[in-house]
Design brief:
By secondary structure, the chain is of the alpha/beta class. The protein folds into two domains: 82 residues, no CATH class; 191 residues, 3-Layer(aba) Sandwich (Rossmann fold), CATH 3.40.50. The protein is 57% helix and 9% strand. A hairpin with a 2-residue loop joins strand 1 and strand 2. The longest helix is centred in the N-terminal third of the chain and has 32 residues. The radius of gyration is 30 Å and the shape is elongated.
């Protein structure tokens, strides 16, 4: 499971910022309190001295335990004095403690060498933000997919209604998302514009993100343009885009067929599809093109891999965006 390096760095910076803020605020509270009540500093100095003496006492041999016991009583007495003083001043007894955002890891991001849940939540949040920034709609959910927008009348040619068909599509996509891992099957969603392909692919992306997988989403045109700028030195990414497209846990290519077709885009698209097929990493492709149009637009090497290796999902119905605007 992996997020891209930018998301990791962003999460690390936020964790570091939280820890710095918590410690700075604790210091400010302490400085203000000591200014108003100097006795607090004297008590804390006594507590600190008792702690140092306890460390030194370890080398005393047989007499160490008895002496450390006396220091512990002294320390507890000083702590009680500090607590009583704070209560008399009118502040909480933990007023001087550092108030970390996450008390489990104390805003370090790790516990016993493993990622803390707070760090995982940040990774997920930034991954969501990145995905939403790249899409034209907010991150979608399966529950928000409206089957009532699809006609219930049976198609005389197929004997099935668009609503029945889209119910099957929705159930497949839910099942795919529930079972998702890096070995999930690649999918091509095809059909006319405005039938919900982007909505369901984003819902599938959300499910993958919720499991902690790294997802890259974008229009095919934008992703290939980034790759081209990087390839010909017009970007400072230094291969980051290609690495991201080839190695992310799930890649979603939206609106395949709408990109400008050049020798570079054809070559780059082949490399993406072929490499991910070889490594077994899943791709979701959304397109308005039929399989016949895919074969006409792309080389045999690309179209045969998509048609032969990807699970086809045909979308039926009327343009939902037009129906919503009525």
């Amino acid at each position: 499971m992996s997020y891209n390096e930018q998301i990791f760095e962003k999460a690390k910076k936020e964790i570091s910022r939280r820890r710095h803020t918590a410690e700075t605020q604790a210091k400010q509270r302490r400085d203000e309190l000591i200014t108003a009540c100097p006795e607090i500093e004297e008590i804390e100095q006594e507590i600190a001295r008792a702690g140092l003496e306890a460390i030194r006492a370890i080398s005393m041999g047989a007499n160490a335990q008895e002496y450390i016991g006396k220091l512990a009583k002294k320390n507890l007495k000083q702590q009680q004095l500090r607590k009583d003083l704070l209560i008399n001043i009118g502040v909480d007894e933990d007023y001087l403690e550092v108030k970390y955002n996450c008390p489990v890891c104390e805003d370090r991001g790790t516990v016993d060498g493993k990622r803390c849940d707070c760090f995982k939540s940040l990774l997920k949040k930034y991954a969501y933000d990145e995905l939403c920034k790249c899409s034209s709609v907010k991150l979608s959910s399966f529950n928000g997919f409206r089957l009532d927008f699809y006609p219930s009348q049976q198609d005389p040619m197929t004997g099935i209604s668009p609503r029945e068909r889209m119910c099957e599509v929705l159930n497949y996509c839910r099942s795919w998302a529930d079972d998702f891992d890096r070995k999930a099957p690649s999918v091509i969603m095809y059909g006319a514009t405005g039938l919900g392909k982007t909505h369901l692919s984003l819902a599938m992306a959300k499910a993958a993100l919720d499991k902690g997988y790294g997802v890259v989403y974008g229009s095919t045109q934008n992703l290939l343009s980034r790759l081209e700028r990087e390839k010909f030195g017009r970007s400072q990414d230094n291969g980051a885009t290609e690495k991201m497209l080839l190695e992310c846990d799930l890649l979603i290519l939206d609106d395949l067929g709408a990109e400008f077709s050049t020798s570079f885009t054809i070559s780059a698209l082949y490399n993406i599809i072929n490499t991910r097929m070889t490594t077994g990493l899943p791709v979701i492709i959304n397109t308005n093109l039929s399989f016949e149009e895919l074969e006409q637009r792309y080389t045999q090497r690309i179209s045969s891999r998509i048609i032969g290796d990807y699970t086809p999902i045909e979308f039926l119905g009327r343009d939902i965006r037009q129906l919503k605007s009525m």
